[in-house]
Design goal:
The chain contains 5 helices and 12 strands. It is α+β, with helices and mostly antiparallel strands and 269 residues long. Helix 2 packs antiparallel against helix 4. The longest helix is centred in the N-terminal third of the chain and has 15 residues. It is globular and about 50 Å long.
Length: 269
């Protein structure tokens, strides 16, 4: 259940903020605040929602993301920066996760994705350094799994999946002010099986899960998402996006911060 929810919310995080393309890994990524807060004057509908949201994000280029999940009285938080691109190969992000909530002690876990390489700092499991996973290495089972995840989170794939799986779309009216911007609240119901089928995910992964998933999305007049709320089988999840268009610094760890230790040794594909 926890694995499904983390995967689900991560997929939506990457749909709405899937990182920068073409930047040198040693330099910061630049966004644009020029159109942030600007009224697009576009009525969002079931048919154009995913496309319009994606266009606005590509214009802004960057964002800060906080993901909070609560299940069984336990809260898991992910916090980080992303910038926006159209291709998964150009994706970059930096996320910090609550290690205690994930069973890794009181050390926060860190994940960075730069130039198709995933760096994961997992406390004692990696000697407090970053394990390196090359997503282009087909001989590495973990690399192949992460690469598949990134391919499925490609915004083009996600936009298509979302468009094909929306069963209902309702304008819920005023969503209040979030991150200094007036928002509109949208209630969206997705067909879970159709969403995963469009992503290329094995349908067996949906066994025992609800047929539909309901989201509440708060979107600014600039068509940028500010908050997403979901509840699945008693577990709740909230994504919050701020600082759209502000410059971020997403870089690979230095050589002395990287370990050859493989925390996934013995795990099959």
């Amino acid at each position: 259940m926890k694995k499904f929810l983390v995967s689900l919310m991560a997929a939506f995080a990457l749909l709405f903020v899937s990182a920068c393309g073409g930047s040198d890994s040693s330099e910061g990524q630049s966004g644009s605040t020029e159109k942030v807060g600007e009224d697009k004057g576009t009525e969002l509908t079931k048919d154009n929602f995913a496309d319009e949201i994606m266009k606005a994000q590509l214009d802004a280029g960057t964002a800060h993301l906080v993901m909070t999940m609560t299940m069984g009285g336990q809260e898991i938080t992910m916090d980080g920066d992303m910038s926006v691109a159209e291709k998964p190969a150009d994706t970059a992000m930096s996320l910090t996760m609550d290690g205690e909530a994930l069973g890794a002690g009181d050390t926060d876990l860190e994940m960075r994705l730069v130039d198709q390489v995933m760096y994961m700092k997992m406390g004692q499991a990696t000697g407090d350094k970053f394990a390196r996973i090359d997503l282009t290495d087909e001989s590495n089972p973990m690399g192949a799994q992460f690469s598949e995840m990134m391919e499925q989170s490609n915004p083009a794939t996600q936009v298509e999946a979302m468009g094909e799986s929306i069963e209902s779309f309702e304008d819920g009216g005023d969503g209040g002010e979030i991150d200094g911007v007036s928002t509109t609240k949208y209630r969206i119901t997705l067909n879970a099986a159709k969403m995963y089928e469009a992503q290329g995910t094995d349908p067996s992964a949906m066994a025992g899960l609800p047929e539909t998933i309901e989201y509440v999305m708060y979107v600014g007049d600039d068509n940028l998402p500010r908050r997403l709320e979901a509840e699945v089988m008693g577990a709740t999840a909230v994504n919050e996006w701020t600082k759209w268009g502000e410059d971020v610094d997403i870089s690979a760890p230095s050589d002395d911060e990287i370990t050859d230790q493989n925390p996934f040794a013995g795990m099959g594909g």
